């Protein structure tokens, strides 16, 4: 999922240079992916059986591989839009199904494994980023897509045995009858995660470009790899911290750290702030998802993962629209807006911390 969803970011400059991709179409292709991601999350709400379907997971993984492999076959903008739309929908389904499987099956055995599984997104970002850098130096934009498609195919083969846990009807009915009233905390969590979607996507879209604009050398081109490498172990680290501190407090802390990281390149120039920014952003954006989705599962709200993913997806669609009027002045104002949105997410998360029901029945 990390490859299929996020590889477009490092390939985008290559497509501008070699494929004649315009800035407007480039933005539209990113938006297509966000719309598809929202559609996939909505499917997880409308059809709960999909979230527990191994066939849906495998089909979505195959779609991701195919959308990567078909991007270089055409120069048609409409076809590209459709492929990125399908990639977004497949990414959301992979995410919702895999996260639901992790939270229901891994946590009872070794909670830190959940964190490492979330870190797979960071691994996909880092690996695809490295492949794109290599392809950029040695070949073309088409080779970048095909190489990443091959990587996604290998990872799909490794992920093929994953089987979500089917939910018995009787146990589901019993859970419905005994479910605690936790909607107050969940609504605050949903607001926080939606604001995070806005701030995250602004940073995810413009952070690398801002660093490339102000810092020359390897860091400018390799910032996305740094983000992925920082994301890989971060989820396991946040999961370990959750053994000692409450998850709502860690959500507030991770959002605060992320807001600082996003604002750094806009406030301070130079390589060191840029590197710190990439590390802080990478270390928190998947960590926030790990913590927020874990809190949602703990609150026992029906289809919590899919609902939170919908809020996050809606934020991702809204983020570029809010940032667009600021881009005529460069990327700094957009990054400050992204940081402000993450601050709003942190403020909303404070309500999750207040009298949080830590000891709900499993």
Briefly say what this structure is:
The chain has 362 residues and is an all-alpha fold.
What does this protein look like?
The chain has about 350 residues and is mostly helical. The longest helix is centred in the middle third of the chain and has 32 residues, at about 185-215. The radius of gyration is 19 Å and the shape is globular. It starts with a helix and ends in a 9-residue tail after the last helix. Mean pLDDT is about 85; it is low at about 170-175. Helix 7 runs antiparallel to helix 11. The chain has 15 helices and no strands.
Write the layout of secondary structure elements.
Blueprint: H1 2-6, H2 8-18, H3 23-46, H4 48-51, H5 54-70, H6 77-105, H7 111-138, H8 141-159, H9 169-178, H10 183-214, H11 218-241, H12 247-267, H13 271-298, H14 304-323, H15 332-353
Structural class: mainly alpha
In total, the number of strands is 0
Task: Encode the helix/strand succession as letters.
Answer: HHHHHHHHHHHHHHH
Helix content: over 70%
N→C terminal distance: 29 Å
> Beta-strand percentage?
under 5%
* Number of helical elements: 15
Instruction: Based on Cα principal axes, name the global outline.
Output: globular
Low-pLDDT windows of residues: 168-175
- The chain-level mean pLDDT equals 85
CA radius of gyration is 19 Å
The largest sheet, given as strand count, sense and whether it forms a barrel, is: none
What multimeric state do the chains show? single chain
